[in-house]
Amino acid sequence: MGPQTMIEKLGILADAAKYDASCASSGTTKRNSSGGKGIGSTEGMGICHAYAPDGRCISLLKILLTNHCVFDCHYCINRKSSNVRRARFTPQEVVDLTLSFYRRNYIEGLFLSSGIVKSSNHTMEQLVEVARMLREEHDFRGYIHLKTIPEADPELVHQAGLYADRVSINVELPTDAGLVRLAPDKSARQIEGAMGKVKSDIVEAKDAKKRFQHAPRFAPAGQSTQMIVGADAASDADIVGKASRLYDSFGLRRVYYSAFSPIPDASAVLPLKRPPLIREHRLYQSDWLMRFYGYKPAEVMQATEADGNLPLDIDPKLAWALKFRERFPVDVNRAPKEALLRVPGLGVRAVQRILASRRHRTMRLDDVAKLTVSIAKVRPFIVAADWRPVLLTDRADLRALLAPRQEQLELFAA
């Protein structure tokens, strides 16, 4: 075969990057070029197929530096034994693509990951060089997210954080046993050690910024990680427990979940089919409960079924409420915020509005209905001025009544 064109490389390496979900950018430093200096800008909202409050879709260039890899992780389509087309960008080519796409208003930033080529240090040097060139040679002020390599020298990972808005290190699998079985080239201790070093660098940079105005920033949008769901035997309870430990130990901004997807020429140790995508969605919902609703990991685990997995037909919050019906109903006019956040169907904003409104008036069922998408889901779990659920909360068929109806959509519906 002859030399590959840039378009051919882009097609291969953009497709290879689709399995990585860690690409939000919330929390980064706000920068812009409105003063006539530099190129690009960042916003406090998410990047990469996210939507801003005004409805704009914000996206980034999401590619691999290369899909060549010296590792042989069973679940990875780019493993060294995989029969896929290979391609490789130079750092200069990635820089040129990023700037070209930005000037055409296609993107607002760069998400860059890579397979391991030659060695971990060599690959990490290439990733850092891309970010360095963008920042120092082109004064690029857009968002940069670098996937770092835990096996690389810590100093190289530190350099990545000096240029990138966010860095991330994938833990890959929820259990150490799963990692040993499916990714024998990787070490759980090494991965967590690298995450711990990034955490300490972030803390030190924030402390230095308080004392010195011109102290260098370090990964202002923090660090994140990703776990593959369904490639091994780990249950949702295992995954929730792992995510909680990662949040507590390393101060992560996000833990992302990626449902395992069967790949061509798959290893015999992998499942033959992917887990339901709704399982990935339920894990994100459980993550939200821990981060914004005050649920402890053990409480989320209580919402799981006998096999340790979250139910697929109802969300984790409803599953927990049905298991602990003695906590309900709660009075929307008297209950504290913590109790209202446990009510299925009430989101954080709805609870905030209830707390604000009840200072001035007594809340009725119609008032609550205006704050939620489905009052039918809320009714069994609340008391209002004109409403009491009586025996509704204890009905044996309550789960069936509240579970979303399965509906076959029409392909050519008007």
Strand content: 5-15%
Architecture per CATH nomenclature, i.e. the level-2 architecture of the largest domain:
Alpha-Beta Barrel
Largest sheet: 6 strands, parallel
The strand count comes to 10
Structural class assignment: alpha/beta
* Parts with pLDDT < 50 across at least 5 consecutive residues: 42-48, 50-56
| Helicity range | 25-40%
Order of helices and strands: HEEEHEHEHEHHEHEHHHEHHHHEH
Mean pLDDT score: 88
Q: CATH superfamily assignment of the largest domain?
A: Aldolase class I
Query: Per the principal axes of the C-alpha atoms, what is the gross shape?
Result: globular
Radius of gyration: 24 Å
CATH class of the largest domain: Alpha Beta
Question: What is the CATH third-level topology name of the largest domain?
Answer: TIM Barrel
Number of folding domains?
2
> What is the terminal separation in angstroms?
48 Å
InterPro entries: Aldolase_TIM, DNA_rSAM_put, Elp3/MiaA/NifB-like_rSAM, Endo/Exo/Phosphatase_dom_1, rSAM, rSAM_sf, RuvA_2-like
Keywords: Iron, Iron-sulfur, Metal-binding, S-adenosyl-L-methionine
Protein name: DNA modification/repair radical SAM protein
Cofactor: [4Fe-4S] cluster
Quick rundown:
The protein is α/β, with parallel strands linked by helices. It is built from 15 helices and 10 strands.
Could you describe the 3D structure shown?
This protein is of the alpha/beta class. The protein folds into two domains: 6-271, TIM Barrel; 324-402, no CATH class. It contains 15 helices and ten strands. The protein has helices spanning 6-16, 91-103, 120-137, 154-163, 176-182, 188-211, 236-250, 277-292, 297-302, 316-323, 337-340, 348-357, 365-369, 375-378, 398-402; strands spanning 50-51, 57-58, 61-64, 109-113, 143-147, 166-168, 223-229, 254-259, 330-331, 382-383. It has a six-stranded parallel β-sheet with strand order 3-4-5-6-7-8. Helix 3 (120-137) packs parallel to helix 4, helix 4 packs across helix 6 and helix 7 (236-250) crosses helix 8. It is globular. 39% of the residues are buried.
